[in-house]
Design a protein that fits this description.
By secondary structure, the chain is of the alpha/beta class. It has 12 helices and 10 strands. Strand 5, helix 5 and strand 6 form a beta-alpha-beta unit.
């Protein structure tokens, strides 16, 4: 591990003056399986050893505090932590927004969540909800900051008004380029919250440095959610997450989920050829490999699927050129071109939303779907929409950045 890099958690453990304000107060922790020290000790276990810090409760987001649910949209119950005997409240069960009873269990909430840098990742929404409830109840929130593993790039359309959901916490682009601590600052400002908020900043985070470009060299990867299995997945996720709103497999039920896509009977050579003809620049920064896979669960279970794996882990990876949201948008557009009647959009209840298509909630508006389905719409049309949003976001996020 790079000795010059420390997470907010590690700084809180190493610098007694940072933890001193917690003495005599009831402390709770919102964390998940990737909330670990560089030595791979879970945050709850590590922080419990601090003198004068008394934990009164813990909270688990989607997939749980210590990791109990393997798939999307499976709720977790409230429980008792098996190590420390304190209540663990689920924020992905009976409620997603903490109740008054839950808020009454602490004075200070420490938030230590590894994000993936993508708007749809539900930990962002959970942060918004706890900030809003903390403002209402007069509680303090400290974010123990962690890296955005995909660094500072910005990509995608901004979420439109009336499209907020549990997978869309605010008017962010798909790749927002902020850390969780910075996102908290943005939420407080844009929502006009009056809350006692503090970020324990990282030390030595250099998101422009190769080869990690956001993920510190030598740092162990612990899955923040069950299918976030490595840095390659994180890099591709802002594009491949859109597959959840389609009938195409995103690779769940394989060992490389959200790094590949495909379906039984898909004509991959024709698809890749159409993509190259439409917008070759949108395919840069990575390598695309035609492949075959057979999911053991989820979509296309037990069927041999023809597909494509997105490779972003070797020397051909170009961080600034790789644009996963455009890449997957292009794949959808090319599929519409080669098979106009392909049943692409999946109509099913998605993350507590029942009345509109999942692909639209994922994208924060119907704009991408409408572009895909319009035979006359060109890549330049979507690029113009997205580029305007991206430029606006670069400017609006600037006051909230904490790191060079």
């Amino acid at each position: 591990m790079n000795p010059q890099f420390l997470t907010g958690l590690e700084r809180l453990l190493a610098e007694p003056e940072l933890a001193r304000p917690l003495a005599g107060r009831r402390v709770a922790l919102l964390a998940h399986p990737a909330s670990v020290t560089g030595g791979l000790v879970h945050a709850l276990d590590a922080l419990a050893n601090l003198p004068d810090v008394k934990f009164s409760a813990a909270f688990g987001p989607q997939h749980g505090l210590r990791g109990d649910k393997q798939d999307n949209m499976i709720e977790s119950p409230d429980t008792i932590d098996p190590v420390h005997g304190i209540p663990v409240f689920s924020l992905y069960g009976k409620v997603r927004r903490p109740s008054a009873e839950m808020m009454d269990s602490f004075d200070v909430l420490l938030v230590d969540l590894q994000d993936l840098g993508c708007r749809i990742y539900t930990f962002i929404t959970t942060l918004r909800y706890v900030l809003e409830e903390a403002a209402r109840c007069g509680k303090s929130v400290w974010v123990l900051d962690r890296p955005n593993p995909v660094g500072r790039p910005v990509e995608g359309l901004l979420l439109r008004p009336d499209w907020e959901s549990f997978v869309g916490a605010g008017a962010l682009p798909m790749r927002h380029g902020l850390t969780l601590g910075e996102l908290g600052r943005w939420f407080i400002a844009t929502l006009g919250l009056d809350v006692d908020y503090r970020v324990i900043e990282m030390e030595g985070w250099r998101p422009d440095d190769a080869p990690g470009y956001g993920w510190p060299t030598g740092r162990a990867w612990v899955n923040p959610s069950p299918n976030a299995s490595n840095l390659s997945m994180a890099r591709a996720y802002a594009g491949t997450v859109m597959l959840e709103g389609t009938t195409l497999s995103e690779g769940r039920g394989t060992t490389r989920p959200l790094e590949l896509f495909g379906a039984a009977g898909l004509d991959v050579p024709a698809l890749l050829g159409a993509m190259r003809a439409l917008a070759p620049l949108w395919m840069e920064g990575c390598r695309l490999r035609a492949c075959w896979f057979e999911p053991t669960f989820h979509k296309h279970t037990g069927q041999l699927c023809a597909g494509v794996q997105i490779h972003v882990e070797d020397g051909h990876y170009e961080h600034d050129a790789f644009r996963p949201w455009r890449l997957m948008a292009l794949a959808f557009k090319a599929l519409r071109q080669i098979e106009p009647d392909y049943p692409l959009w999946r109509d099913f209840p998605y993350e507590y939303e029942y009345d509109r298509l999942a692909i639209d909630f994922i994208n924060g508006s119907p704009l991408l779907r409408e572009w895909v389905d319009d035979p006359a719409a060109l890549p330049a049309d979507l690029d113009a929409l997205a580029a305007a949003d991206e430029a606006a976001w670069h400017e609006s996020r600037r006051p909230f950045l904490l790191y060079p």
